[in-house]
Design brief:
324 residues, alpha/beta, TIM Barrel
């Protein structure tokens, strides 16, 4: 069985990405089968519980107050409304419920309100995940005490490309929040976005940053940029699908125990791209036709792909990867 490493260099990760394509996929799929059932995926649902008016200047994000998009800001949802959405998600087969709020760094009162929602969703028997921006140690402890399973805080890209994408926080700010969550026992959901104009080496730099965390993030979402009119990254050349597959495969190899999620941008992917990504080691998707503010693939399209592959959504009582 492949043992996790925590000393990857960028050159080593780049060499993995650049392996001959068939060799790369064979190695990634073999690594995947060592710890995960290739006939099951994790199904999650994502809900924006507070939308827009974020003070950050992320070049990809329609929720930034600095980007001129058509998105209308919405305040934090009431607890009964959040819980109703979670119950619906569970009924539709999701095992994890993810809640996102467009804050740079919430205040303690806001975190307390989200903690109530976390506790209520956990009582449904679902795994819980939130993304709220940067947290203090106290706020991380509040969420942990509420029963939060995962905190999503993507690194987005490599350290040397980060300044091209965002200037309102530093790379270390992101890492500090990951440490705060890890120290109180919250599992990490941390990945990044491809297709933002970065080089292949910079994609390797993102994976290397994730792969030197010890332990690795339990969940690693790989997002394909959704180009939203009004954001600075709108109009970039279309990302090569096989480059996405290479990124998924490399993530699987350098973080063998992590759940790799094929995340945003699936509505623009062909069935063939989906299939290759699953074969390369992706074993989690967001269900439904909506992400935070963007379109998702939709249940009918997902069902068609998964049926052809004889793959099912993992039931609630089987949420862990298979043992060696």
């Amino acid at each position: 069985m492949t043992k996790p490493r925590y000393d990857w260099t960028i050159d080593e990760v780049l060499a993995v990405i650049e392996r001959p394509f068939h060799d790369l996929l064979a190695a990634a799929h073999a690594c995947h089968r060592e710890r995960f059932d290739p006939h099951e995926i994790e199904g999650a649902k994502l809900l924006s519980i507070k939308t827009g008016a974020c003070p950050e200047d992320c070049a990809y994000c329609p929720q930034s107050a600095r980007n001129e998009t058509d998105l209308q800001p919405e305040p934090l949802m009431d607890l009964p409304d959040i819980l109703a959405k979670a119950e619906q998600a569970k009924a539709e087969g999701a095992t994890r419920f993810c809640m996102g709020a467009a804050w740079r760094s919430p205040n303690d009162r806001q975190v307390d309100e989200v903690a109530e929602a976390v506790h209520a969703v956990a009582d449904l028997g679902m795994e819980t995940c939130v993304t709220l921006g940067m947290l203090t140690d106290r706020q991380a402890k509040t969420l942990a005490d509420a029963g939060l399973d995962y905190y999503n805080h993507n690194l987005d890209t490599s350290p040397d490309f980060c300044g091209e994408i965002i200037t309102t926080r530093t790379y270390q700010d992101r890492l500090d929040t990951l440490v705060a969550c890890r120290e109180v026992g919250i599992s990490l959901c941390s990945g990044g976005i491809v297709g933002m104009g970065e080089t292949r080496r910079q994609r390797a730099g993102l994976l290397q940053q994730l792969a030197i965390l010890n332990p690795h993030p339990e969940s690693v979402p790989i997002n394909l940029l959704i180009q939203v009119p009004g954001t600075p990254l709108h109009g970039l050349p279309e990302f090569e699908p096989l480059e996405l597959v290479r990124t998924i495969a490399a993530a699987r190899i350098v973080m063998p125990e992590s759940t790799i999620r094929l995340s945003a941008g699936r509505s623009s992917m062909s069935e063939e791209t989906h299939v290759l990504c699953f074969h390369a080691g992706a074993s989690s998707i967001f269900l439904g036709d909506r992400l935070l503010t963007a379109d998702n693939n939709g249940d009918d399209a997902d069902a068609a792909i998964l049926d052809q592959l004889d793959v099912s959504v993992r039931p609630l009582d089987q949420r862990v990867s298979i043992e060696s």
